[in-house]
Design goal:
heterodimer; A: mainly alpha; Cytochrome Bc1 Complex, Chain D, domain 2; 3 domains; 2 strands; B: Helix Hairpins; 2 domains; 16 helices; about 0% strand
Chain lengths: ~230, ~400
């Protein structure tokens, strides 16, 4: 048995080394974007409503979140908007209409060179809310001077972003830093929420499910031990 | 209680016309099972449970899913939209979808453990060769099913993954292009592909059920192997019920805890079960930076990538699967279990290691270092089959116990 344990250990260590070294090798070979900023994402009502406000006031100038309807804003308890608030927001649009921008794809292409992506699941298709937050607060001066100011983004793959600095991060007054960061954080939280609107419910149910299963499994384990008592090895 | 049920007039009525009571007794209650099976033997019943879960959740998903690649607003498609509707508007649709998505990964994990157990304890050796072969067929049908299913969300990885895999068939000489077009229903992945993949994704699980029945039948003819690999005497056998029903149920409990952790708290499985790229709608003008199949197919993808020549890679990949069928005959040893076969044991562990390393390499972006590691692992993988007959013919085994 001892010998076999040693073999397993050697194999395990060999494995570990391969798995541990490989990502380092990957990073050494590429000079990719720096690690993303890591804001504190919360899904309380205040943050989500602030995020919704940033989204409808700023993002929706160009972007949509078509899978979220105006009706959803009342329906999801996490957001908890009143009918009055929703009516003010939607104007003449239907409650069944998605949060879509009025900018047509053709106009967008003309103005920005490409159609802005729908943001319904943006945190799921990129590296989570961290990505959204980092992009929004990642506008800087291009050290090489090739990309014009306002289109150079540290965190965007390739650095040249078509989206003009939406929260006016570049050249902002230092006393506004906290305000802009809070805007970015709340809208990142909002987008993380609408990416999967039932996620909080999912986790709540999950605790009950796992709790029940643990109890059930303990009972099954005791039953198994009792039944197997008379089997001699 | 079970006795009362089996003796009830309804059961007796059924039994006279179908022999059901006798069957239940023979194959479930009194079915003789070695008393020394360890927990590695739980994966068979777990695999059946997950197959059932997949079919049930799949039936409900199919009630809402629409296999249609027509473009909709925002760069999405009808298919992508229908899945987001399931996630958002269908009551507990998110739960059904996550069960199905996590279930796919769980199914493969279980099947790989099950296969690994069979390999380690020599469960493929005479008289269980057919049982093993049917098992390998199950693996292949599962892989096909999973591949068809992965196209359905019509995300970037669905689209480009399917493009890469169908391209492989194009490497086959003479008929390659024909097969390729037949699979795709056109010259590239498109709406016809989505429709036929959906149809096949619904068909293949039915085939799978039929083959699983054959697998169970084959098992019940030759009976279970056990960790010693020795045929048990009467004294070494115990009835399946209650001993293994309760042990399997305990295994189900443990499994469900892990499964539900993923479903409720980590449904994307760190981006391994549901990849981030697949939340971007399919776009035939934009290739993702890095295309890789889902984790359970990456070992074979890695073998494919280890060869600079496409045809050679495809042949190697096919061979890596086909060779599994021949293991019962490549292994010349008389002793079954690796417990008493020191050299075979090392070989088999190294083989498992090579599969894991291959899987890791296939999942990651190919750097020079990873390519080299992948090639070494490929060599180890094939080396196992190459040396199996030679080593097992001359291997000095440890003494085997008289009984289990």
């Amino acid at each position: 048995m001892k010998r076999s344990h040693r073999t397993t250990a050697v194999l395990g260590i060999a494995f570990g080394l391969v798995i541990a070294c490989a990502p380092m090798a990957v990073q050494a070979e590429e000079g990719g974007p720096p690690p993303l900023k890591h804001p504190h994402i919360t899904m309380d009502r205040k943050t989500l409503q602030e995020g919704l406000q940033v989204f409808t006031n700023i993002c929706m100038g160009c972007h949509s979140a078509k899978y979220v309807t105006y009706g959803d804003l009342m329906r999801y308890p996490e957001l908890g908007l009143t009918r009055k608030q929703v009516d003010a927001l939607r104007g003449s649009k239907s409650l069944l209409a998605g949060l879509t921008t009025d900018l047509t794809p053709a106009d967008a292409k003309m103005s920005y060179g490409k159609v802005p992506p729908d943001l319904s699941v943006i945190t799921r298709s990129r590296q989570g809310p961290d990505y959204v937050y980092s992009i929004l607060t990642g506008f800087e001066h291009d050290p090489s001077g090739r990309i014009p100011d306002g289109f150079y983004n540290v965190y965007f793959p390739g650095n040249h972003i078509a989206m003009p600095d939406p929260l006016t991060w570049f050249h902002h007054d230092p006393k506004d830093t906290d305000h802009i960061e809070e805007q970015a954080r709340s809208v990142a939280s909002f987008l993380a929420f609408i990416g999967e609107p039932h996620q909080l419910q999912r986790e709540t149910i999950g605790y009950y499910v796992i709790g029940f299963l643990v109890l059930l499994t303990i009972v099954l384990w005791l039953l198994k031990r009792e039944i197997w008592k008379d089997v001699k090895h | 209680m079970i006795e009362r049920m089996l003796n009830s007039s309804v059961a007796q009525w059924l039994d006279e016309r179908s022999g059901i009571v006798g069957m239940v007794r023979k194959h479930l209650l009194d079915y003789p099972t070695p008393k020394n099976l360890n927990y590695m033997w739980n994966f068979g019943s777990l695999a059946m449970l997950v197959l059932l879960l997949q079919i049930l959740s799949g039936i409900f998903l199919a009630m809402f899913y629409k296999p249609d690649a027509m473009a909709t607003a925002g760069g999405y498609t009808v298919a992508f939209d229908s899945i987001e509707r399931i996630m958002r508007d269908v009551n507990y649709g998110w739960l059904i979808r996550y069960i199905h998505a996590v279930g796919a990964s769980a199914f493969f994990f279980i099947i790989y453990m099950h296969l690994g157990r069979g390999l380690y304890y020599g469960s493929y050796k005479k008289p269980r060769e057919l049982l093993w072969i049917v098992g390998v067929i199950i693996l292949l049908v599962m892989q096909a099913t999973a591949f068809f299913g992965y196209l359905l969300p019509w995300g970037q990885m669905s689209y480009w993954g399917a493009t890469v895999i169908t391209n492989l068939f194009g490497a086959v000489p003479v008929v390659g292009d024909f097969i390729n077009e037949l699979l795709r229903g056109g010259f590239s992945i498109g709406d016809p592909t989505l429709n036929r993949f959906f149809s096949l994704h619904y068909l293949f699980p039915m085939i799978l059920v039929a083959i699983v029945v054959a697998h169970l039948h084959a098992l019940h003819v030759v009976h279970s192997n056990n960790p010693t690999g020795v045929e048990p005497s009467k004294k070494g056998l115990i009835p399946f019920h209650p001993y293994y029903t309760v042990k399997d149920l305990f295994g189900v409990g443990v499994f469900l805890i892990v499964f539900c952790y993923f479903v409720f708290f980590n449904p994307t499985g760190w981006g391994l079960f549901l990849e981030p790229d697949n939340f971007s709608p399919a776009n035939n003008f934009q290739t993702p930076a890095h295309i890789a199949p889902v984790w359970y197919l990456t070992p074979w993808y890695s073998i494919l990538r280890s060869f600079p020549d496409k045809l050679l890679g495809v042949v190697a990949m096919a061979l890596s699967m086909v060779l599994l069928f021949f293991i019962p005959w490549l292994d010349k040893g008389r002793v079954r279990s690796a417990r008493y076969r020191p050299v075979f044991r090392q070989m088999v562990l190294l083989f498992f290691a090579s599969v894991v390393v291959l899987g890791y390499c296939g999942h990651s972006e190919p750097t020079e270092l990873l390519k080299t590691i992948g090639r070494i692992a490929t060599a180890v993988y094939f080396g196992f089959f190459l040396f199996l007959p030679i080593v097992t013919k001359h291997e000095k085994t440890r003494p085997v116990p008289q009984d289990v």
